[in-house]
Design goal:
six-stranded mixed beta sheet; 10% strand; globular
């Protein structure tokens, strides 16, 4: 049980990854901005004479994320918006017990023969005992394996969300989140349908079994302003797991666009940080915002 309890603690931290007072107007933006091919990708979304700034983060990488242009830009923004934070209302163990364990349905009862074979292979790769995973729902098993995978390959660097949230906190800047607490993150996962639950595990297994080189290619290309590999991965995931994609990406993308509308009602221009896979594809935030009348510019 000690091993299981340790992993319960780790997984809540990982979920912040799986899926972070300035002046108005940002007059100095042009002096801060560089061509889109230089530095981490950054966009301006404009409507009705108001604007916000949008960038993306990747899962953990070997080194901390840094981009001096975006870090300077944040100091001129009115607020930071991210997907998650580190706030809890309830103890982690109670949240895992409530949302990550179904006492009537052990893990084996969720999986077919192919799932079990792939899970065994991924567990070996992550140096995790399958027996330690047995009590959990598939989504939680997928999250645990992703966490072990990132740690195992040495990807422990701070994400853009973590770096920018730290900067915002030190400056006393407002920081808002899609999920106001980690309790909400786990509740969101806990509400997955049985099919979505299994599809999340399959999606996590895809990543682990593909190995770090596949992720590294996507993240390196993204850092260079090349969206094609990320777009292809989103297209693959949408085809393979359409029910999960509807909830994990499409519905949340639409919710972000609604949030953007409300952001324009506040003074100043915020900086928004979301996962890179929310950005791309026909239903991604960039394309959807453009269809809804936003002016979307890479800066």
């Amino acid at each position: 049980m000690d091993t299981i309890d340790t992993r319960r603690r780790k997984v809540v931290g990982m979920l912040a990854t799986a899926l972070v007072a300035g002046s108005g107007g940002l007059a100095p933006l042009k002096s801060l901005a560089q061509p889109a091919t230089h530095g981490w990708p950054l966009w301006s979304l404009q409507r009705g004479g108001r604007n916000l700034y949008l960038t993306a983060e990747t899962p953990p990488q070997p080194a901390d994320w840094r981009d001096s242009r975006i870090e300077r830009l944040l100091s001129h923004c009115s607020a930071l918006w991210t997907e998650t934070n580190n706030v809890y209302k309830q103890p982690q163990g109670a949240l895992i017990q409530r949302y990550g364990i179904d006492p009537r349905r052990p893990l084996d009862d969720w999986l077919d023969a192919r799932d079990k074979a792939r899970l065994a292979e991924a567990a070996r790769y992550c140096k995790t005992s399958p027996g330690d995973l047995a009590p959990y729902r598939p989504w939680l098993v997928g999250s645990l394996l992703q966490e072990q995978y990132y740690r195992g390959v040495g990807w422990k660097g701070k994400s853009a969300r973590e770096v920018l949230a730290g900067q915002a906190a030190r400056a006393g800047m407002p920081w808002h989140c899609e999920f106001e607490t980690k309790d909400e993150v786990l509740a969101w996962f806990g509400a997955l349908t049985p099919l979505q639950d299994v599809q999340f595990l399959r999606y996590a297994l895809d990543e682990v079994l593909a190995g770090p080189a596949a992720d590294a290619r996507i993240f390196k290309a993204w850092a260079a302003g090349q969206r094609e590999l990320a777009t292809a991965e989103v297209a693959r995931y949408n085809r393979a797991y359409p029910e999960l994609a509807q909830r994990l990406t499409f519905a949340r993308n639409q919710a972000w666009l609604s949030r953007f509308e409300h952001m324009l009602d506040a003074k100043g221009a915020p900086l928004v940080v979301v996962g890179l896979y929310h950005m791309v594809g026909p239903s991604g935030i960039l394309a959807s915002a453009s269809r809804q009348g936003w002016t979307v510019d890479a800066i």
